[in-house]
User: Fold this.
Amino acid sequence: MAQRFYSAAGRIIFSKPGYDASPSLPDSFKIFDSDWSFGYVLIASGSLNLGVGTHVISFPTQHFIPAVEVAAYESRGGRDYLNGASIISVSTNSFTIQIFDNDVYRVDYSVLGVSQ
Assistant:
């Protein structure tokens, strides 16, 4: 099973299905790389094991409402699928996520702000 989320100090990478996320992975096999120069900075990121229900995830307070990206993974037949979660709300220091699928085993997230 591919490890599709990579996190290190100041950098995160999400890979396409079937590819291990790493700094050496070619861009064509990435969904997201925080090193891509598109005008955003990484505020927070993480990987959590959450059950069905509503969850609030906190991050350092900002003077604006940042962008939040969430990937919820479930496994069927030895393969990973993105599924089973919705972002309900985002504030200056947290976001609320709803997990509605019992098969979700991991949630990866990133919080992004506009670079100054």
Q: What stands out?
A: Residues 5-114 form a domain with the Immunoglobulin-like fold (CATH 2.60.40). The two ends are 38 Å apart (CA to CA). The mean pLDDT is 84.
